[in-house]
Amino acid sequence: MKKLYFAAAALLALSVVMPVFAFDRPAARPRPTPAARQTKDGSSASSKTLPSITPAQQANIQKLAGDLQTIKGKSTVTPEMKQQLSNDIMGMCKGATKPSQSSVDKLTTDLTSALSDKQLSKQEMVKLSKDLNYVLNSANISDEQIQQIVTDAETILKSSGISKSDAETIKNDLLAISGEIKKNYGK
């Protein structure tokens, strides 16, 4: 009986003392939300919430990155280079809802103008191409995610030495394309 009494007294003492100790501990750090974490490729949008990239899309991303690599460092971009880039951008659209050719041509013109004398690394070009892929297929992507993707693209452009105004122009092109796709998707 003494043992039972002693065990009960010990439990009672612990239940009274433990809450005091809990307040003495530092608060746990909040963990970042999945959307705030960076993906393997360094972009800030969560891969869990964005649609997965198909092998065909990955091939298109690599092709577009190659086109951007060809344009990089050229003081003169030929009409053929622009047309190839425009075709490859349109080729990235996988859904029934696509942007207008004029929107893609404006993006192409602004990209070639901004990138012709700048130094994007191959990795940055792949990231930028991946961001373009998401924008071009953004019918089912939330506005918040699109904003994250476009901001990521803008950051890539600015870090490569592209002027703030050129990066802003391309950002606006991407937002306009996404808006156009979402508007057409709702019809």
Q: What would your notes on this structure say?
A:
The protein is mostly helical. The protein is built from seven helices and no strands. The chain has one domain.
Radius of gyration: 25 Å
* Range of helix content: 55-70%
- Please state the structural category: mainly alpha
Poorly predicted ranges: 8-48
Tally of structural domains: 1
Rough shape?
globular
Q: Note the main sheet.
A: none
The total count of strands amounts to 0
Average pLDDT = 78
Tell me the β content.
Answer: under 5%
SSE pattern, N- to C-terminal: HHHHHHH
Q: Could you give the topology of this structure?
A:
Elements: H1 2-24, H2 55-71, H3 79-91, H4 101-115, H5 122-136, H6 143-159, H7 164-185
Describe the structure in brief.
The chain has 187 residues and is mostly helical. It is 65% helix and 0% strand.
Key structural traits:
187 residues; mainly alpha; globular
